[in-house]
Design goal:
Elements: E1 20-24, E2 30-31, E3 48-52, E4 88-90, H1 92-98, E5 102-107, H2 117-131, E6 135-139, H3 143-154, E7 158-164, H4 170-178, E8 182-186, H5 190-202, E9 207-208, H6 214-220, H7 222-235, E10 241-245, H8 250-264, E11 275-281, H9 286-293, H10 319-328, E12 332-336, H11 338-350, H12 357-371, E13 380-385, H13 393-399, H14 410-419
Helix pairs in contact: 2-3, 2-6, 3-4, 6-8, 7-8, 8-10, 11-12
Bound molecules: ligand F0G.
Ligand F0G binds near residues 245 and 359.
Length: about 425
């Protein structure tokens, strides 16, 4: 079983560079961070996480965006567009409807390429530069490929993306294409694309920038810092619960890492850690299944389907990091239908917050858990919306009203309006 406990007083092992090293969460083996290229433990195959010889406090953070948190990242700065500093929207009508003490929506769709993946890429591509690799690659349901293409272009590095054919939203392919990625469409789902990219990476053909790469998650952990800081500034307390959509479970793992570091730094009491609450689509819910059955890992779902193509994933590779995160924080996981996702997308849009379907899953999940009484009316909740509405224009157009054709004439327009 994964051991995610952080030591009270971290000391850098010999393999560390500037106080940073990689730690296997299964067997505890430690690795040099920027010499050999490794993604998982070469001894036992376990997931790796970045560790530091320090636990920064809120006072150590300065500046803005992801690199405000440089003290808890492997470098001082990275390849930046810049990213982070996303809005923590107030949604008073939704807060009222759902009936919780406070509800805020952290809109990660406001990052430069329109999703939270930018936070991981600014760090991941900086590490790729350090390693001196030639080609960056990822498998993707779309957003990772858009972010990789943009940050790779910024760093003048070659990028290769493998996408499940016919299952990636139009905006995301357009981004990957225009930012200059080489796009391969695979006749298979995301999970088989990731199998191939892992093979390519193992053969030294490309540097893998999926969330299996521990440095990606370091960047994504800054979502947690931003939420904690901003929520505390507004309410004088930390949120009770963070609800987020889950695909590969990288973001869930990243938020848990943020909380563990803040507990270790003495900034957050253990009973103040927000409950990590994952939401999956009913047609792709291996994490929900694992939580319900109390398993330590997920069963791979071969057939997955959902309107929320971003989270159309049957084999969440970060489950060994994320499942303990959900259980240790007292959170849970819930599955929602495509209809519930579209409803939530409309509701958010009705508050001016435009998100793609996967993002709306967080609000759909909160609605369900509140209805079931799992979430109490006294809770402070933050829902994470991970990608922008324009990522998936087809889904948005279907969820919204159809345009109405009228004649090219003011009287005709007035007549048409009077018809209703
Ligand atoms: N929301 C959106 C909009 C996403 O694009 C993803 C993942 C997730 C949620 C799930 O995050 O994997 O960390 O649990 N998209 C990946 C991609 C898989 O290729 O863009 P996770």
């Amino acid at each position: 079983m994964a051991d995610l406990a952080l030591p009270d007083e971290p000391t850098a092992p010999d393999v560390a560079t500037d106080g940073v090293w990689l730690h296997c969460i299964e067997c505890g083996e430690q690795f040099a961070p920027f010499e050999d290229i490794i993604y998982t433990c070469s001894d036992c195959g376990g997931l790796l996480e970045a560790r530091y010889d320090r636990y920064p406090t809120f006072d150590d953070f300065e500046g803005s965006g992801v690199w405000r948190y440089a003290e808890s990242l492997p470098f001082e700065e990275g390849v930046t567009l810049p990213e982070g500093d996303t809005p923590l929207h107030r949604v008073p009508r939704l807060e009222d409807e759902i009936g919780v003490e406070a509800l805020r929506v952290k809109h990660e769709g406001m990052n430069p390429t329109g999703s939270f993946k930018d936070r991981g890429m600014t760090v991941g591509v900086r590490v790729a530069e350090e390693l001196g690799v030639g080609r960056l690659a990822c498998a993707s349901t779309g957003n990772t490929s858009a972010a990789l293409a943009a940050y790779g272009a910024r760093a003048a590095l070659e990028t290769l993306v493998l996408l499940p054919a016919g299952k990636v939203a139009a905006g995301k392919i357009a981004q990957a294409s225009l930012h200059g990625a080489r796009i391969l469409e695979v006749d298979g789902n995301f999970d088989s694309c990731l199998d191939i990219v892992q093979d390519l990476a193992d053969r030294g053909e490309a540097y893998l920038l999926n969330s299996l790469n521990p440095f990606r998650l370091e960047g994504q952990k800054t979502i947690g810092f931003e939420i904690l800081e901003e929520f505390h500034a507004d309410y004088g307390r930390f949120p009770d619960r963070i609800v987020l959509p889950v695909g590969n479970a990288g973001n869930t793992a990243a938020l848990y890492k943020c909380f563990r570091e803040m507990v270790a730094a003495g900034e957050l009491d253990e009973d103040e850690v927000p409950k990590l609450t994952g939401v999956q689509a009913e047609g792709a819910a291996p994490m929900v299944e694992a939580i319900a059955e109390g398993n330590e890992d997920t069963r791979r779902w071969e057939d997955v389907e959902t309107i929320a193509t971003a989270i159309r994933i049957g084999n969440p590779v970060n489950a060994p990091k994320a499942l303990p995160g959900i259980s240790e924080t007292g959170g849970t996981a819930v599955a929602v239908s495509d209809e519930e996702i579209t409803d939530a997308q409309r509701t958010l849009a009705g508050e001016g917050v435009g998100v793609e379907p996967a993002s709306a899953a967080s609000v759909a999940g909160l609605r369900k858990l509140r209805d079931e009484g799992v979430v109490g009316d006294d809770e402070d909740v933050v829902c994470l919306t991970t990608g922008h509405l324009l990522k998936d224009p087809d889904a948005a157009a279907k969820a919204g009203a159809d345009p109405e054709p009228v004649a090219n004439d003011t009287e005709a327009v007035l007549e048409h309006l009077a018809e209703e």
